[in-house]
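Standup notes
- DV: blocked on the single-chain target, sequence here:
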Amino acid sequence: MKLEPFALERWMTTWETKVSFDIAESGIYPLTTRELLDLLPADVRQRTHDEMLDLRLGYSEARGTIALRSELAKTYEGISPDEILVTTGAIEANFLLFTSLLKPGDHVVAVYPAYQQLYSVAKAIGCEVSPWNISQANHRFGFDVDALERLVRPDTRMIVVNTPHNPTGAILNQQDLERIYAIAEAAGAFVLCDEAYRWLDLPEGPQLAAPMRNLGPAAISVGTVSNPFGLPGLRIGWIVATGDIARACWSTRDYTSLSPAGISDYLATVALRHRDLLIARNHAIVVENLRAADRWFESNADIVTWDRPRGGLLALVRYAAEMPSSLMTDTLAADHSVMLAPGSAFGYEGHLRIGVGQRPDTFAEGLRRTAAYLRTITREPAAAATD
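- DV (later): unblocked, structure below
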């Protein structure tokens, strides 16, 4: 299996530790361990602190502790801990599912554009991958389930979806998910739903649909504490599937990371038990940033537009300047210490990916610097008239 270069990750690693104003980040602003513990009630905080310091730094339970898997199972309908495998982030979860369930020649339908892993791994395995393109009308992004149905064939092995969607912020509602599940079930296919933005309903936005796994045995949900909880450094994700699928992925995982880190498993359990506190913290960040973004786009409507996300944290910014997005983002990072992701990494040239989960003061300054730069390279109507 030969994997193609991961364009976005290679680009992100070039700049993410060098810029001061990262407003491309795909997750919520990360917590420190102290900040996580400080969210807890005083008695719980002290007990958690002591338990954490007394943890032995040995190997943890290979499929994730029963404590964490039990907490996760409570967030789905009719799921037991034995139907859950804890992984090293959602990226390992997806990789294990692709490599455990697919073989060369299988037909896969995958949402596009998307986080590149969602279609590149299947291609590397030797699958025939049909892209399910996100539709766009009047710069409004959305899912066309009729188009998906036309792509599915009797030999389709897997349908891969992502909601809320990275990078457009489009969402699938409950009726959409139920229809997609019925399409997959009729074809004898699995449907893998990357739910990295679960729990990230937006203010004044629609309620997010329930997890895909709730719909039946052909459905697989992948989750993470990274994006919705601001805990990417824990590297904890999970697979929720039938027991047979969870065990097959566990067997594959014996050859990769073997087991999750024990201290990460412990802190992820704490986060799940007290997720309402994290969701409230995250909601406050997103509300402030969306207000700042709305003002910014209104003030700069002559040079930028966007399709405001309906769920999750991400959206695409369309800019008026005639410049490749990779050159623009490299210049913003190198000369202005601002990181916005190039739309070309997702097949959307002339766009930039923005995330609204950053610390609000950093987000606001990143926007200010971006507008100042864009105005230096965008031809104003008045200037054009003097040519």
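- Follow-up: The longest helix spans residues 275-299.
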